[in-house]
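Quick one: structure tokens for this chain, please?
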Amino acid sequence: MYQEDRLLKLLEWLNERHSLSVNELMDRFNISRDTARRDILKLVQEGAAIRTHGGISLPLLNDKLLAYRERVESFSADKRSIGISALRFIEDHKHYFFDVSTTVNCLAELVTQPIKVFTHSLDNAAIFSEKPTSTLYVFGGRLHHSNRFFVDLDIVNQLESMHYDTAFLGAAAITEQGIFYDDLEDARVKKRVAKQSAKNIVLADTQKFMKESYFKGVDWAEIDMVITNHKPPDLFVKLMNDKQIKLIVAEN
């Protein structure tokens, strides 16, 4: 079950019960303690629940819960369709980098093939830790709590010694200049990964083509493919055609 689907069911149950424990979540959804805690953290971060000793309870303002539910329902289908489209580019026993991205998370949830996974994403690490067919390598360091990735001065040095068959990259913003991110340290990770990968595939919904961010991580010249949920603005379609970047619009 996708995390978004599980969270929606969790919210429905929380509305009925008003409070839930970690053990109850584990039993109800047949998930590990780490997965239950990850779900709790996600709801708490979004203001849809309040953390309690051993579990969660309803927030004081239910409008936050409703707003979160509406947002998850509206975006999860698009992100899943991108993940499904990207799944065809996974091959047995290859080496893949999975970026920090909720859309890349959707792809991670779908993978069943025996592959080697490299990531600095806490969420991706948790997902692949429950997939015995995959071999997981996590770049460590300090945890960036808000964006849920690990960062360390040595990570870029570690990345220089690696080679990936494919890197699945997210995006905070997509502009004419390239792919941008909100955090400088994270952008440096993408920059190095893109240089170390034989193929770079960007997974991003079309809203990212209308946003701006601060730090460029990847140049267009380094991108091989973009998978999105709707046709991007004509400017970007032409840009990708000119640079011979394959554009895939996922079917909803």
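The mean pLDDT is 88.
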